[in-house]
Description:
- Helices cover 60% and strands 0% of the residues.
- With 212 residues, it is an all-alpha fold.
- The chain folds into 2 domains: 8-132, no CATH class; 144-206, no CATH class.
- The radius of gyration is 19 Å and the shape is elongated.
Amino acid sequence: MPSAPMTDIALRASLLFAVARKHRLTGPVSALEDEMASEVSDQLRRQGCAETTDEVLASVSGGVHAADTGDDPALSISAQHYDRIRREFLSEHGLAQAKGRAVWPAGSTTLLRRAGGSWSQALRDAGLGVAERSTDEAFGAAKFAPDQFRSAMRTFQQHAASEGISSSYQNYLQWRKDRMAAGQDDLPSGAALRSFFGSWKAALMETAPKDA
């Protein structure tokens, strides 16, 4: 039976934990709000690693303190670094993601989906700072293989042609938003596409339908 989706509190705690691990921050467990401490403790117990509770909660507390210092970009984390810290934690405790089973810390894809596809927004939702250079573009480039970028562009151009609309950047953003709302989660962001191809014009030219 699939597990219930993680709560917003569990997602926020995931990010705070990773930031604390990145910057080697800890704080008193007693400083955590009861609801967050209880949520994380329950997640760890269900995953069979209750023995890590005190250490994990101390890290989450350190992350809360970092968030409380304000929007300091230095106390932030990229999606790539977040994924690395999460993998290390899961590996340390013999945990593995399984279909239909939510494993804490939440995956970056879950955080992105809950934040509307924006890593910067996920950071803001957790009360963390956002670096001046957005991490969304870099995340998109790391998340997808070259064939996925090309496939997304070809599919979008076919859609634009069938609907009689231009294959503009803004129309891609709207199309991607509609597809994500329908449950598709394997489409790179517009920023990631421009980064991969070099420009939107280059993306269109490289993936333009070939004449029969």
